[in-house]
Amino acid sequence: MTDTLEVVQSKTTTKLNKKESYPVKKMLIICSKGKLEDVYAALVMANGALMEGIEAKMFFTFFGLEALTKKYADNLHTGTTGNPALMHGVPDMIKGLPGFESLASYMMRKEMDKLEIPHVTEFFQMIEAGGGEIYACRLAADMFHLKKEDFVPEVKDIITVGDMYALAEGQGTQIIFI
Fold this sequence. Notes:
By secondary structure, this protein is α/β, with parallel strands linked by helices. The chain has helices spanning about 1-20, 35-50, 90-95, 100-115, 120-130, 140-145, 160-165, and strands at about 25-30, 55-60, 135, 155-160, 175. The protein is built from 7 helices and 5 strands; from the N terminus they run αβαβαααβαβαβ.
């Protein structure tokens, strides 16, 4: 048994050592959801990558586009129904009542303010200032009748999915889909 364990540990160590020789150099973060918690997950990962010296590019598609709009960027809501991690013990039927989503969003923003977490538009500014790039999806923008002037100024361009894949070119690129 000990010999088997040593072999497994040896193989694991080899894999870890090989992984270390190919560090992450670039992150492509795709955000397809417009809920507060999903958008913040993408923003925190992009900003964290930049702080670690990793190139970061963001691509917002479908409902994620709402986060890029001037109208809604700082007014996103949190998902309440179907979210078992939100307010344990509160039934989804209650979470779906009118006004509950607004209340939960207000409470979440209040806690984020206490922690001095930047608002969405501030995060976009930080990401751009750190060398990150933010893109909107052409198909989704056309589908929702959105133009470049509808988006926050940090949106570099509205691009196709093919263009988005071109952003990921190169060794050491990781793609995260939210």
